[in-house]
Amino acid sequence: MDNVNQAKFWQQHYEQNSIKWDMGEVSPPLKAYIDQLPASAKSEAILVAGAGNAYEVGYLHDQGFTNVTLVDFAPAPIEDFAKRYPDFPSDHLICADFFALSSDKYQFDWALEQTFFCAINPARRDEYVQQMATLLKPKGKLVGLLFDVAFEHEGPPFGGTKEEYQQRFAPYFDIEIMQTSYNSHPARQGSELFIKLRAK
Ligand SMILES: C[S@@+](CC[C@H](N)C(=O)[O-])C[C@H]1O[C@@H](n2cnc3c(N)ncnc32)[C@H](O)[C@@H]1O
């Protein structure tokens, strides 16, 4: 399980094109969420961590969001993203460990979660919650999707339940929405929760 803590593990998957998690498109519930945001949101500071091929970042950029930061510790998908989006600001492409990001340097209005939480070692889930809360401004929000399923195979992805997530996030976030996503990608229909959590 410790291998998922290493950038090398993920980098090899990208190099071997063994990326079963990659939907090849912006996640439909996240696209729908982005589409209903007001124009005033376009300058907000947004974090997409564990972004991989980062279709959500590409979509935000295409829609005119100007302050989006992509974080991943595997260089391959970031290099690929930079080729696909040559006009995306390179200082917002951060090849680094999410857990090592300094909140003195980075503060975001909100963050998008898309198959990153399920990719980390489950023993680090509380660390994720704390680190995410630290990187958000007061009352900042975490929006995204969490798997609501127990996978039979050993992860990643690592599954979970609504009850577990409620307990883990409650110390640092108010849970505004945590419900079965009604507009998931067909391959994930019924197996993920849409979340909107507000940092305390
Ligand atoms: C399952 S993939 C999901 C990628 C993307 N969100 C998607 O849905 O296609 C998990 C991603 O998280 C990245 N990752 C895992 N642990 C990380 C960490 N501690 N810091 C930064 N990135 C990490 C991996 O390199 C990988 O790109």
Structure explained in plain terms:
- The chain is of the alpha/beta class and 200 residues long.
- It has one domain (2-13, 43-199): Rossmann fold.
- The protein has helices at residues 7-15, 28-35, 55-62, 75-84, 125-135, 162-169, and strands spanning 46-49, 68-72, 93-95, 108-114, 136-147, 173-180, 192-199.
- The chain has a 7-stranded mixed β-sheet with strand order 3-2-1-4-5-7-6, sandwiched between helices.
- Strand 2 (68-72), helix 4 (75-84) and strand 3 form a beta-alpha-beta unit.
- The model has no long low-confidence stretch (mean pLDDT 96).
- Residues 10, 21-22, 50-53, 71-74, 77, 97-99, 114-116, 119-120, 156 line the site of S-adenosylmethionine.
Mean pLDDT: 96
The main β sheet shows up as:
7 strands, mixed
* CATH architectural type: 3-Layer(aba) Sandwich
Structural category is alpha/beta
Number of helices: 6
Small-molecule binders: S-adenosylmethionine
Q: List how many beta strands DSSP finds.
A: 7
> Level of helix content?
25-40%
CATH homolog superfamily: Vaccinia Virus protein VP39
| Termini Cα gap | 31 Å
Radius of gyration: 16 Å
Content of β-strand: 15-25%
Helix/strand layout:
Elements: H1 7-15, H2 28-35, E1 46-49, H3 55-62, E2 68-72, H4 75-84, E3 93-95, E4 108-114, H5 125-135, E5 136-147, H6 162-169, E6 173-180, E7 192-199
Parallel strand pairs: 1-2, 1-4, 2-3, 4-5
Antiparallel strand pairs: 5-7, 6-7
